[in-house]
User: Fold this.
Amino acid sequence: MKHELRSKLPRLSDWNFPASARAKSLPAVLGVAHLFVVVACGAGLPHPSSQHLSVAQKSEPQVSLGDLDRGRSLYVAKCGSCHALRDPKSLAPPQWQHEIDEMESKQGVHLKPAESHDIFRYLAAVSGAEKR
Ligand code: HEC
Assistant:
């Protein structure tokens, strides 16, 4: 996945700008990188807000902020050991469900059904919200 991530970003060595132009463009590159990966420990990963909650409650009216917070913690605990955590907004909810299923079936990630649902619910709520 590291390889795949890198392939989505422009490589500095491919660029042929004068140094002054490169300095101006670098923040733009970092902005792109931020879209795809959140640091492994979960710093920068959004904490559930009332906006995320209203997204989640469209599918599950009983959901609480505590449920979303548990999903965030599980995402950090269960999904950050092999690779950096992806920004929840980088995938749409159905893609998240697919990735979680793949991690379980192909990468041997062990999750209880309630845990994978908590993780999905958190990722889908953040992904589906307009702002972070
Ligand atoms: C045991 C190690 C391991 C754990 C734990 C793990 N993954 Fe992965 N993950 C991988 C590997 C290896 C790949 C690259 C192969 C692939 O894409 O199937 C990957 C790829 C991915 C990708 C695709 C990345 C991309 O840029 O296309 C996503 C999204 C992802 N994982 C999400 C998760 C989530 C969510 C969890 C927690 C439920 C998780 N991973 C836990 C090993 C792991």
In short: The radius of gyration is 17 Å. The chain is about 60% helix and 5% strand. Residues 19-36 form the longest helix (18 residues).
